[in-house]
Amino acid sequence: MLIFKLMYLIRGYVVIHLDDINSEKTLNILRRKNIAVWDVERKNKGIKFKISYDDYIKNLSLINEIMKTVNKKGLMLKLNKVKFRRGFSIGLLILIVSLYLLTSMIWEVEVVGTNQTNTNKILALLSENQINIPVSMSQIETKKLETMIYNNFENYKFVEVFVEGSKLIIFVREKEPEPAKIKSNEPSSIISSKNAIISKVIAKSGQPVVKEGDVVYEGQTLIMGIVKNKNSDEFVMVPSEGIVYGKTYYNFEMKEEKIRSVNVSTNKSKFVYYLKINGNSIKIIGDKEPYENYNYRESNINVPIISKLADISILKGVYYEEVIKEIEIDEKTAQNKMKVSMYDELLKRCDEDSRILKSTVNFSEDDDFYYLISQIEVIEDIGQKIRIFPINDDMTEETKED
Amino acid sequence: MSKFNNFRSNLADELEIPNNALSDNFDLRMHGNKKVIIENHLGITVYEDNMVIVNTNDQKITVKGSKFKIEEINNYKVIVKGNIKEIIFSMKE
Question: How far is the C-alpha of B39 from the C-alpha of B20, rounded, in Å?
């Protein structure tokens, strides 16, 4: 019946009101004339029904004689009206199509954050990958472009591609030059990178200024790159080489909940479909957020041909229902977890060559949490090489004057 | 039912083909108590909000109920929709 109604909606139909008391007779006359009648409804005095526009035209004289036409509906009737204003209608249609096509295309590419030479290189790369201006927005995949530019140019540390209106904007940030490494023959000193107690000093060159058992603070000089010349009283600057081992102490305080809330799936799911036009979504089927707790995933479905020509696709979203369950964590699991986290944290703070000398780990608990309090004693290389510079004579004179 | 029509009906039964293909008998189908489809009819005699009478070759079919609406009527079939309470078959006078 729906197909039948849809067909007549396209071909056109006429709504007729009949105030005659003997309406059955009219219905039978129409039936005998082979006119299909549908949606017959009794109104106050008479009846209301629908017949097709073709039948209405064929039996116009008969119908006008016995009944009153109320309304004419349908796509064909609308099109017939439009026929009289053909030029205007075609113009309007062309305007709408042109506007849509113009706004769904990219007409300009702008590169921000680099010089003209690199901009030309990026544009050449786009051309190599069949992205020539003008191009349809549906063919632009920003994430893919970002990856492509990032992989092809080593000197960019950040690339972002986005569409603004009908313009494709490529935003790049160039890498800063890396600080020069200290050459082995440049004068340098070794300073402490951490607060520690000196355990061992192995100085290959330079003058050690600390000894075993000394307490040193972060930034304090351990091996000085200024040594006295053997043949004269003058001091000379040399590159420092050596390893200084120090005992360092790390304190950790951690806590872990006794009861934890976990989301568990109930295997129930509901779908929602959106029509996506130029990045804007219009919901067509389904409900948004049908569950109180849910996990949401979405996927894009491209419509054949249409998605290629214009930026139109269907977005399918799935809501998976979840319930929150509270899980009690036993003491051993919590302790193991805290220990693992503690050692992970320690690895981040120490070098790979570091060695644990002593560790004290204490566990405690209250009503809600398990606690870990620990102190780890580590022996590690605390030396950090820094470049030293000679003080110019001019500068020393200036300071004297001051 | 006339003798010839009766014969055609019996023949259709023997040949295991639809009865209304050979005879003039009407075909009546119901969808729950909401819809009744009558095929091979001869027109409507009465159409009221609570009653529809459909004329067939031998009988009159009276459909009683409420909120009746004729969904479709053509030369071959009539579809009556509404709350159907009663269907009465009566021989034509």
Answer: 9
Across A295-309, A337-351, A376-390, least confident range: A295-309
Q: What is the domain extent for residue B32? A: 26-91
Q: Residue A233 and residue A31: Cα distance in Å, rounded?
A: 130
Using a CB–CB cutoff of 8 Å, tell me whether B76 touches chain A: no
Question: Is A37's CB within 8 Å of B68's CB?
Answer: no
Record: contact A23-B47, CB cut-off 8 A: yes
Whether B21 contacts chain A with CB within 8 A: no
Do residues A168 and A184 make contact, with C-beta atoms less than 8 angstroms apart? no
Q: Which residue ranges make up each domain of chain A?
A: 2-80, 105-174, 188-246, 259-328
Does B8 fall in a domain?
no
Average pLDDT value for residue range A185-201: 88
Q: What are the tens digits of pLDDT across the range A179-188?
A: 666 666 788 8
The domain tally of chain B equals: 1
- The CATH number of residue B57's host domain is 2.60.40.2000
Q: Give domain A2-80's CATH number out of 3.10.560, 1.10.10, 3.40.1360, 3.30.70.
A: 3.30.70
* Contact between residue A207 and residue A223 where contact means Cβ atoms under 8 Å apart: yes
Look at residue A248 and tell me whether its pLDDT is greater than 80.
Answer: yes
- Give me the CATH code for the A105-174 domain, please: 3.10.20.310
pLDDT in tens, B13-43: 888 888 777 777 888 999 999 999 999 899 9
3-state helix, strand, coil in chain A (%, to 5): 30, 45, 25
Residue from B35, B38, B75 to probe the interface with A (highest A Cβ count within 10 Å): B75
- Kindly report the nearest CA distance between residue A81 and chain B, in angstroms: 29
For chain A, the first-to-last Cα distance in angstroms comes to: 103
Beta strand segments in A240-344, E = 241-257, 259-277, 280-285, 294-302, 312-328
Q: Are A344 and A209 in contact (CB under 8 A)?
A: no
> Which residue type, as a one-letter code, is found at position A50?
K
> pLDDT value at position B82?
94
* pTM of the predicted protein model: 0.39
